[in-house]
């Protein structure tokens, strides 16, 4: 018997969030004192609402961080929330090397898609093995994990939980990921593995400083089955203006499965942030994480932070909005959603 698969929306009930901890063997080596507090802030916020799976390169790091977070959880009457595993990793982008979880009737299954660091841009072999190592260590309980011979990062797709995926052609059609697959091949594979009935392809939109070839989670996000929020730039002098205006027009043309247009909410456009070499960094408020009862929102120490909090409060009136300063993260060209991967209800049961 064949069971229909669905990829839950991010707002569906969750059991845990994954974090892959930075270490001295990663590109974070020179800024660990700045970035580790960001990971701890994310971890403490997650623990309030669900379990946290933390993996570290070495045992000393795991003992230090897991114990610190366990103590924090116990102080707040939340024992047993932290699951720690020693596992090698090339980097920290759990959104892209973490597993995708599908539901089949009342069951859940982890899918371990291939990861090649956004088309071979960086080292990736350890990250590509991480899900298997976590599974063997019991981090995912008894939930089976299925390897999928296809390169796919979690940050490249958005699901409405009802069979519609939102993605970008710039990312999924890049030859350095799956060179033998065209758009039709990819649509068939996503239908078979994730239960996608429809795929909405954005052909425009990018962020300067982004290494992912325009991941959708930096540009546009489902907030509900009928609602999409997106980054919008209204400064005609900004290098992003034309591409994001074209993306906005595409979003306006998209239709739900019932033929109705989507509700669309533009997100604030943060002031430009540059690194020491003058490279613009990919600050985006679209890179938020939805957890049980809350939304973790990246902020960057710019005037638009307060407006972003207000907009997210309006979009998610029934969830607590928790701002987390992620300016340190964007110096490695990602943000809050990029370093996390949620696991739906039914995966971690403790």
UniProtKB/TrEMBL annotation:
Which key words tag this protein in UniProt? Answer: Hydrolase
What is the name attached to this protein's record?
A: Agmatine deiminase family protein
Hydrolase: is it a keyword of this entry? yes
Q: Which InterPro entries match?
A: Peptidyl-Arg-deiminase_porph
User: What PANTHER family does this protein map onto?
Assistant: AGMATINE DEIMINASE-RELATED (PTHR31377)
Tell me which species this is from.
Answer: Marinobacter salinisoli
Membrane-spanning parts: none
Q: Which Pfam families match?
A: PAD_porph
Question: From which domain of life does this come?
Answer: Bacteria
